[in-house]
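User: quick one
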Amino acid sequence: MRSKASDSSLRVLELLIARSDRPLPQLVATSLESVVLDRLPHSEWDNALLSGTLSADFDEPLLLTQTRIGRATLVGASLAGSRLVDVVIDGATSPASTSTTPH
Amino acid sequence: MKVRSSKLAGVQFAQSRRHDVRFIDCQLDGASIRFVRGEFVRFERCRMRQAELRDSVLTAVAWWDCDLTDTDVSNIKIARAQLHGSNVAGMVGATSLVPIALDAQQAPAFAQHLMATMGIVVGTASKTEPTC
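Assistant: Done. Structure below.
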């Protein structure tokens, strides 16, 4: 049975778990900010806040529900088969970055 | 937010919202991007074969040099959209993909697809009497 980590003060513990090969607990209402994530085995996120970087060799399907992702970077990662439900991805950094005009 | 050179095949973005996100050189084959709301979303050189974008609402969206082969865009609602350099062969529901800006090289293929969708047949007239 999966445990639920609903206290954001557990973020350091969860990061340590994330770097192991063991399954993560279900993360509920958890805030991880400005972190570099290498592995998130079998992770499920609900009502969380994520920002940071997924490493290039990251290769895990994610299940994100009601999660907000901001200021994140993905370069070379594989999220194939992931499921993002009611997720907000807000990459706004500055007004200049919002142009879609061809250069 | 930038997503670069990432594999996102089969990803499901259900009822999600995006603002100011750039996908660059990504692999999104078979991705489900249905019922998504997005502003300032840009796909650059992405492979999106058989992706599903139907019923999404996208403002200021661009697909530049993407492979949209067999992509389903039925009932999509777009504003300030660009499709320059992208392959639209086999696209489903292209009549929903308006208003959109594309380049001259794309126009024949896009027009052919639109006409086929509307039941317009281009060919040599047989000049036979229409049957009632």
